[in-house]
Amino acid sequence: MRFSGIERSQRIDYFRKFDYLLMGVVLIITAIGLVFLHSAMYDMYADNGASAMTVQIAGVILGIIVALFFCFFDYTIFRNVCFPFYVFNLFVMLLVFTPIGIENYGSRSWIDLYVTTYQPSELMKIAMIILIAKYLERINENGMTLDSAIIILAGFFIPLGLVLLQKDLGMALVFIFIFLVMIFVGNVKLWQIGIIIGGGLAAVPFVWKFYLNGVKRDRFLSFLNPDKYQDYSLQLRRAMTAIGSGQLFGKGYMQGPLNRGRKIPVKMSDMIFAVICEEGGFIAGFAIVVLMTIMLLRMLQVSHRARDVFGSCIAAGIFAMFAFNIFENIGMNIGIMPITGLPLPFVSKGGSAMVTNFFSIGLLLSISLRNKKGMFIDD
Prior knowledge:
The protein has helices at about 15, 20-40, 50-70, 80-95, 120-140, 145-165, 170-185, 190-210, 215-220, 235-245, 255-260, 270-305, 310-335, 350-370; strands at about 10, 100-105, 105-110, 115-120, 375. The strands form two sheets. Strands 2-3-4 form a three-stranded antiparallel sheet, with helices on one face. The chain has a two-stranded antiparallel sheet with strand order 1-5. Residues about 1-10 and about 375-379 have low confidence and may be disordered. The chain has one domain. It is mainly alpha-helical. It starts with 10 loop residues before the first strand and ends with a strand.
C-alpha cells in the first residue's frame, strides 16, 4: 500500500473536515460512563470516593483539551520525535520497579504521584504504535531491511517484557494484539508475519508454565469453569448475576442491589459493565456495545482513508488498542473471556487512562483532518 505525496501549501478546512462523528460518539460514551461511575462510587463517597470521582472528571476535562490540542497539529510531526517519545516512556515504565511503584491486584504497574496514581504502560502503547508505524512506512517505501526489522521487533518486545515483569497479563495481551494488527495493516509479507506468530506460539508453553503459575493460572481459567475455581471466580459470578438480574430495562439508576450492596468486586473499573447492565438492563448494555462498535468502525475508516502509511498504521494500532480492551472487558463481564483487569475505555475509573485515551483520539482526529479526500480548501 503506497500513498502519493500531497501538496500542503493550501489551508485545511478544520471546521468542515473535523470528525464530528468520532468525537461525538466518544463524548456520549464518556458521559454515560460518568453517570454510571457515579452510581458505582456513590456508596463509597464517605470512603474518599468523592475524591476519586473528582479525579475522573478532571481526567475527562483534561483529556478533551488534549484531544482538541493534538488534532490541530499535523500528526506527521511524531515521525521526528517518535524515538525520544518512546525512550522517555520506556524510562517512566522502569519507575514502577522503584520505591514509588505501586502494586494493585498482583500487578506492579502504577506510580504513586501522591495526588493520584499513573500507569506508564498506558502511554507506552501510543509510543510503541507511533514508533512501529514509522518503520512500517519505511518498509513500504524501501522494502524490508535489517535495521527496520530490528527496530520494529525491539520496539515491541522491550515494553512487552517490562509489562510481563509487572505481572500485568491483560496489558501484555493488548500490546500483542496491537502489534499483530499493525504488521498486518503495514503490508508485512505473510511469511514474515508467520515467523513472528510462530515464535510467539512457541513461547506459550514457557509463559504457561513459568508465568501463569498457581493463583494466576487458576484465576485465568476460572471463566471456563466458575464452579471448579470458586475461590477465584467470585468476581465473574457476581458480575454475571448482576447482568442477568437487570433483564431488559434494569433495576433503575442507583437502584442495583448488588451495586449498592458492594457485592460486585472492582465494580468501578473491571466490572463497570455489570453495573450498567444491572441498573440499565439489556437496553443500556446494548447501547454501550452499539456506541463502541460505531467508534471502532470509524477508527477503521480513518485508517483506510489516511493519506500515508504512517497515519494508516497509527490509526490501525489505536483501533486495535481499543478493540481488544472493549472485547476483553465486556467478554470477562459476561463470562466468555478470562478476567485480566482491563478497563472499559472512556467508562471505567482511571484518570491517566482517560487522558491517554483522549490523546489517542486526538491523533485520530489529526489523521482524519488530513486524509486523502477533500483535505484542503483554496486560500
